[in-house]
Amino acid sequence: MKIYGNVLWNGEFRKGTIVIKDGMIEDFRGDRNFDLRGTIVPTFINMHTHIGDFWAKEEPRGGIKEIVGPRGYKYKILRNKRKVYEGMRRAMRYMQKEGTSHFVDFREGGKEGVKLLLEASKGFNIKPIIFARGVYREAEGLGLSSISDYDREYIISKVKDAKRNKKLFAIHVSERIREDIDFVLSLNPDFIVHMLEATDEDLEKVRSARIPIVLTPRSNLFFGKVPNIPRFLKHNILLALGTDNGMFSLPSIFREMEIAYKLSKLYGHVKPEDILKMTTVNPRKILGIEDNGIGKKARLIVFRRLMTPYEIVNKSSLLDIKRIIL
């Protein structure tokens, strides 16, 4: 198969033709001999989800602590395993149609919660990258809610266990209140989530430690908080986007990109190309996923026409997708 058009290749848009054979990228060249024509970008990677609560039907009431904190509303939702399973299937079905190939899920429910997600994911061409509350063979990583939710010795022991077992580690930080970034960085996380209440000094420490940050604008808006994306970029921090809790957000990367782009205008401006990279190129750097290069596996979204990054980020949907190559 040969696909010609505007191609997001090695982080930059270029005109050219991708040659795919047996699911692998054989070549990228400048000719116009093609089978398909359009705009080609890597598949989306949703860097932060909690799809276990996607089935929730009632409006969550209260603040962050009451809704997603320990013993909060979401944990009542998670008790119904049958509905959790069905909700996960619906969420993955939508993500797959939108061109998401991987999603990083902070999975509650211990080992049984991990197994439930793996069971629900059967039959989909979408891979859950599971960050569990504990360290389990079936999960790729350890994902903790916040340093404010645990005893510090407990956190240290869990992180040591994760690193001993060669697992990734990530944690929510400074979402509701400012938290001790020095302690967080001493844990050497692979990435952190939110940092809404962080100071510029905190962000400079994160930059110096080269720790990426995952932002979830729509989820933040639900609680009346707005991430200052230009501020994060000013500190030269690698950013990625996630859709967060399924209780109040469809796991749509298109919607997340649009909101991220528009909210950035409250504080300055972020180029649409940079927003698009937060869902394609940057997550691959964070997770160490090597695809879409010469001799690599092809994971691509082909849009129906030649589109600009502004169009993709600000006013496109799954209806604009011609083909998803996995």
Q: Could you say which overall geometry the principal axes of the C-alpha atoms support?
A: globular
What is the CATH homologous superfamily assignment of the largest domain? Metal-dependent hydrolases
Oligomeric state of the chains present here: single chain
Low confidence ranges: none
Instruction: Please indicate the count of domains.
Output: 2
The CATH topology annotation of the largest domain reads as TIM Barrel
**Residues in β-strands, percent:** 25-35%
Count of DSSP-assigned helices? 13
Q: Biggest β-sheet: count, sense, barrel?
A: 9 strands, parallel
Radius of gyration: 19 Å
Query: What gap, in angstroms, lies between the N and C termini?
Result: 13 Å
> What is the strand arrangement across the widest sheet?
12-11-10-9-8-7-6-5-13
Instruction: Briefly note the structural class of the backbone.
Output: alpha/beta
Estimate percent helicity: 25-40%
Mean pLDDT: 95
CATH first level of the largest domain: Alpha Beta
How many strands? 15
List the defining traits of the structure above.
326 residues; alpha/beta; Urease, subunit C, domain 1; TIM Barrel; nine-stranded parallel β-sheet; six-stranded mixed β-sheet; 25% strand
Verbal overview:
With 326 residues, this protein is an alpha/beta fold. The protein has two domains: 2-41 and 292-325, Urease, subunit C, domain 1; 44-287, Metal-dependent hydrolases (TIM Barrel). The chain is 34% helix and 25% strand. The protein is built from 13 helices and 15 strands. The protein has helices at residues 64-68, 73-77, 81-98, 110-120, 152-164, 181-186, 200-209, 217-222, 229-234, 253-264, 272-277, 281-287, 309-315; strands at residues 2-9, 12-21, 24-29, 36-42, 44-50, 100-107, 127-132, 141-144, 168-173, 191-194, 213-215, 239-241, 244-245, 300-303, 321-325. A nine-stranded parallel sheet has the order 12-11-10-9-8-7-6-5-13, sandwiched between helices. The chain has a six-stranded mixed sheet with strand order 3-2-1-4-14-15, with no helix packed on it. The mean pLDDT is 95.
